[in-house]
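Is zinc ion placement plausible here? Inputs below.
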Amino acid sequence: MYHGIASTSMPFPEGREIGAELYDVTSDNFKAQIQWLKDQGYTAKLIEELSPGQGKTVIITFDDGEMSDFIHAFPVLKKLGWKAYFFIIVKRIGQKGYMGWEELKELTQAGMVIGSHGLSHEILTNLLDSQMEEELLASKKNLENNLNIKVDKLSIPRGFCNDKIIEAAHRLGYSQPVFISEKPEFLKTPCLSRIAIKSNWSLKRFEKAVCGQTPWIEKTGDILKKILKTIFRESGYNWIRSQLIRLIK
Ligand SMILES: [Zn+2]
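Reply from A.M.:
I modeled the complex. Tokens:
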């Protein structure tokens, strides 16, 4: 799971969430990671294309719809004939630093999949049911009407999810599995967890992630995160996280 691709030539969009920069992989690192995958014999495919005995495969996704994905990641993937998912925050389409309809059309024409990442990037578990359903349905319809495609893939914004949201997503026309960040333990519905590629990762750390390994220090951090989420719930945890990031900066 990628987000924005960092480069000196392109400033980041304004008004991103606190901590977004933790996921900005540089353009050079992105190229090196894709090259490593290629050298190891991997291919990036869509879920629909998976078949038994297909060989080494990765699924690549981009959240948020930043323009840097179009400028720096799309050409690299296109050259290899690799497919990926781009999950778009619909209200930010065409805003400074985000892809517009022209870029999204070009992605679909190249065989990339456009999915919804909500209307406004709001944490869905904080919303009333009606607002949550509006985020899911209006974003889907807007993408479908403007791009003239079927949109049935969803990536849960900001990673906070529950069974009610996944049930609503299926009811409103999204296919299984819904893409999330990490699967919360209480979630009963099947969904697709992803590995968030982080800005400070070396190529070695990336290789570990592809092989399903996590260094012990990060594992300890993950356990601490889970405990904090259980004690303070999503909104409390999010507040603590943003304060910590501010402090470190
Ligand atoms: Zn996001």
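Short version: DSSP finds seven helices and nine strands in the chain.
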